[in-house]
Design brief:
Blueprint (H helix, E strand, L loop, with lengths): L6 H23 L1 H6 L34 H23 L1 E4 L14 E4 L6 H6 L4 H4 L2 E6 H4 L3 H11 L1 E4 L6 H12 L3 E4 L17 H9 L3 E7 L1 H5 L11 E5 L11 H20 L2 H9 L13 H16 L9
Parallel strand pairs: 1-7, 2-5, 2-6, 3-4, 3-5
Antiparallel strand pairs: 6-7
Helix pairs in contact: 8-9, 9-11, 11-12
Length: 330
């Protein structure tokens, strides 16, 4: 049976604890003590001959973003996307949308994987203010871990303002794919730029297969999107934006096949985005004809010198500015 302490004994021990706390506080204030203090005021030293444990990084792909998907952060993000993000995007990009009605057949509570080409940092806020609100409410954006999550400050801002989650540029790791798949299974939609980075010259880059893998794993549809004009606003290497017109072309949802491979689905996704680019630069009928003839221009541009690629790109832009309206021959 524990011994009961008298009132005098309790007071005496309380004074001892207070003196110990006060002494610790004075030692911590003392600069000399801080410099020479050892364990437990500092981490213990590692014995010679033993490799120290590697420090766990809290930035990059290890940055935690679960707090950004809770109700307070979600509410803040929705309010921020309406004001000031939407007025700023309307002023800078003047977006026009094509094919948004193709999303009407998707069930209301079906999570979607949005896949788009990538020319500028404007692409993300442009899509965030253009998507229907039923997906914007629960949407995460795949962002480069080495760029947007290189420090705690940039990681926190990216997660809070655009709902970003860190992914590796080169490949999606097992941990990243598991985390994203869990979010999709919980009803979150996912937006990703499968090129892995912004275009350096205005032409597209090869698509990576992460979106196709997630679509097959979660049985979620992929919505291909092609964005035109954002490179003129804030291309890679430019610091100040310049207002211009943009076009967002939404394609029909792509559902994964029963026994389809990830490589086959990734090819279908890239061809769909290329077909949307062809449709934007010419017209729907001509783009469809080239699609069925398997002559759709690729997003990558010609394998030629830089001046030739720039010349070809300027020709495509002239077609976009002066589209010809060719009706089918009956």
């Amino acid at each position: 049976m524990p011994q009961r302490l008298s009132t005098r004994e309790i007071r005496r021990r309380t004074k001892q604890i207070r003196r110990a706390i006060d002494g610790t506080r004075r030692r911590l204030i003392n600069l000399k003590f801080i410099r020479t203090a050892q364990f437990p005021y500092r981490p213990p030293s590692v014995p010679k001959g033993i490799d120290p444990l590697p420090k766990k990084s809290k930035t990059g792909s290890s940055f935690r973003t679960d707090w950004a998907r809770r109700t307070p952060a979600q509410t803040f993000r929705m309010l921020f996307s309406e004001f000031p993000m939407r007025p700023i995007i309307q002023f800078l990009a003047k977006p026009s949308m094509i094919g948004i009605d193709s999303l009407a057949d998707i069930p209301n509570y079906q999570p979607v994987i949005f896949v788009a080409n990538h020319h500028s940092h404007i692409d993300t806020p442009l899509l965030l203010t253009s998507l229907p609100i039923r997906w914007r409410k629960k949407l995460v954006v795949g962002a480069a871990a080495d760029y947007f999550f290189s420090t705690r400050i940039t990681g926190t801002l990216s997660a809070l303002f655009i709902g970003a989650i860190p992914i590796e540029r080169r490949k999606i790791t097992r941990k990243s794919s598991d985390d994203i798949a869990d979010l999709i299974d919980k009803g979150w939609s996912f937006m990703v730029f499968p090129e892995g980075g912004r275009s350096p010259d205005g032409w597209g880059q090869p698509f990576r297969g992460g979106a196709a893998y997630l679509s097959l794993r979660c049985n979620a549809p992929v919505v291909p999107i092609h964005i035109t004009g954002t490179g003129a606003i804030l291309r890679k290497g430019r610091n100040l934006p310049k207002p211009s017109k943009t076009t967002i072309n939404f394609g029909r949802p792509i559902w994964p096949g029963v026994e389809e491979s990830s490589r086959s689905l990734a090819k279908r996704i890239e061809v769909s985005v290329a077909q949307l680019a062809d449709e934007t630069s010419s017209n729907w009928w001509e783009a469809k004809k080239r699609l069925y003839e398997e002559k759709t221009p690729t997003l990558h541009g010609p394998e030629a010198s830089s001046w030739r690629r720039a010349w070809e790109l300027s020709g495509r832009k002239r077609k976009q500015q002066n589209p010809s309206r060719n009706w089918p021959k009956i």
